[in-house]
Structure formats: structure tokens, C-alpha cells
Design goal:
With 157 residues, the chain is mainly alpha-helical. It contains 5 helices and 2 strands. It has a domain at 1-88. The chain is rod-shaped and about 110 Å long.
Length: 157
């Protein structure tokens, strides 16, 4: 067990409870009520009326610590569930995107016009050197070049 602002909390919450605003807010409210019990205990002792509030005050403190610990655990569990769901959505998006790109490549690899164009580029060494430049254009005088441009325009449409 660890100490957090005059309260005993479970060790697993020690490093993170300070970041749980709602838990800290409730801890403050319960702490103020605890101070009221302290005052009542002191008043009971001063008046000598035989009213001992010490047991009630200790029970309230124990109850407060249990409630804060449970609230901390619930907050942690909810946060983990939220983060798990968001992480799963992210992974699903990445996987879907990879499948789509794989399908695109597979589809393009089976397109005869694109394959013929790439084969013709491979036979002409000068044409291959144009592939290194991003601003190079497809030779539209070449039958394969015209066919591949038409094919890509079909894909875009």
C-alpha cells in the first residue's frame, strides 16, 4: 500500500492516481468531510459528554480510502478499455489499407497494357534512364505508352 495525500491507496495506483482528476476531486470532497469528523471528535472530547466519535471517524477514513481505491481502479480500467478500442481501430485501418494496396498491385500486375508497357521500357535502355527522373513523361508516340495512359485514365474515371 502507498500513501497519496494522507490516504492509503493500492500500489498499482501510486504512479497514476495523480493524473485522475475526478478521483482527486472526490478525494478532496471526502477529505473535507473527514475533517468535519475530526472536529466532531475534538468537540466530543472537549465537552466530555461521553460521545466518542473516534471509531466513526476511523471507519469513515477507511471507507473513504476504499472508495478512492475503487474509483481509481474503475478509472484505470475504463481508460485501458478506451485506449484498447482506439488501438484496435488503428490497427484495423492499417491492415485494411495494406490489403487494399496489395489488391491494387495484384490487379495492376495482371493488366496486359501495363505489363506490355513495362516490358517495352525494359528493352529500351534509354527509356529506362527516364524512369529515374520524376518529371519524365511517357512516350506517347509509342503504342504501349498511349495504351498505358488510356488505361490509367480508365482507372481514374
Amino acid at each position: 500500500m502507498s500513501q497519496y495525500k494522507d490516504m492509503v491507496i493500492p500500489d498499482e495506483l501510486d504512479d497514476i492516481i495523480a493524473y485522475m482528476r475526478d478521483v482527486d476531486s472526490y478525494r478532496e470532497e471526502l477529505s473535507m468531510l473527514g475533517h468535519t469528523w475530526d472536529l466532531l471528535t475534538i468537540l466530543g472530547q472537549m465537552t466530555g459528554g461521553g460521545t466518542d466519535m473516534t471509531t466513526t471517524r476511523e471507519a469513515f477514513k477507511t471507507l473513504t480510502e476504499q472508495m478512492i481505491a475503487n474509483l481509481g481502479h474503475q478509472t484505470l480500467e475504463k481508460t485501458v478499455q478506451d485506449m484498447t478500442a482506439k488501438a484496435q481501430v488503428t490497427v484495423d485501418l492499417i491492415i485494411r489499407n495494406l490489403f487494399e494496396r496489395t489488391a491494387d498491385i495484384g490487379f495492376l500486375a495482371t493488366d496486359d497494357d501495363i505489363r506490355d508497357f513495362l516490358k517495352s521500357r525494359g528493352k529500351n535502355e534509354q527509356a529506362i534512364s527516364h524512369l529515374d527522373f520524376p518529371d519524365s513523361s511517357v512516350d506517347t508516340n509509342n503504342e504501349n505508352g498511349t495504351a498505358v495512359i488510356a488505361r490509367f485514365q480508365e482507372y481514374v474515371a
